[in-house]
Amino acid sequence: MTDELLKIAVPNKGSLAEGAAAMLTAAGFRQRSDPKELVLVDPAGGVEFYYLRPRDIATYVGEGTLDLGITGRDMLLDSGANASQVMELGFGGSTFRFAGPPGLTLSALDGLRIATSYPGLLGAYLKKHGVKARLITLDGAVESAIRLGVADAIADVVDTGTTLRKAGLTLFGEPILESTAILIARPDAREDAAVVEAARHLKARLEGVIVARDYVLIDYDIADADLPAATKLTPGLESPTVSPLAKAGWSAVRALVPRRNAQQLMDDLWAAGARAILVTELSACRL
Fold this sequence. Notes:
By secondary structure, the chain is an alpha/beta fold. The chain has 3 domains: 6-93 and 180-191, D-Maltodextrin-Binding Protein, domain 2, CATH 3.40.190.10; 94-178, Periplasmic binding protein-like II (D-Maltodextrin-Binding Protein, domain 2); 215-280, Alpha-Beta Plaits. Helix content is 29%, strand content 31%. The longest helix is centred in the last third of the chain and has 22 residues, at 193-214. It starts with 5 loop residues before the first strand and ends in a 7-residue tail after the last strand.
């Protein structure tokens, strides 16, 4: 690590803030205990965290004021900021879509009013598809715009669609954008050796957390005669760890396996003769 602290923008509220705090904590960095705290210095981690509105983070990073930031891909694109994506972070997934009264289509939006909280992102999409519409910029509660006569359609972040259905709206057209939380860097970050090294260290830690969320450790005992069949089920990333047990003719096996298959894998291992099968959660790892 360099002696210079890496300046990182972190969301100060909302689901992105919760996901970022959980990931950074799992990666071994300090996080604030007081939600009113605006800056937190972590000398041991070599970083300085700045807690900002999620929508402002891309601007601060794009202007070079801060080195890195955690925000949503939708917010980066909407801002038009000169920042680059470093990596996806595996949380904060969302879909940006059109909604309106039943029967609307993308081509029918010509000349209509569309309410949105993402004018930059939506404007670029409409221009790309040759649609000329009037954008009505709102800061939240976009689903009420049609009922209140402000707009003819909306474009908003959609989770389950329940809120839209309650407002009498239906989704139409293909998704405008599939978004997720991302790590972004200032435009000249690659020209600063200190920032490059510090960012590499941060990225390695975050990748370790992401991998740990996708994998678990599985341990089991197996008769040596059944070992080839069992290890075929649990090949690990490079190779499983196999150790002889005190019980003659038996071995203990440990391997990293995908989390999503863990329960089925336990069933298959039991059928193959494995016993004392244990699954262990991971908080972080390096591969």
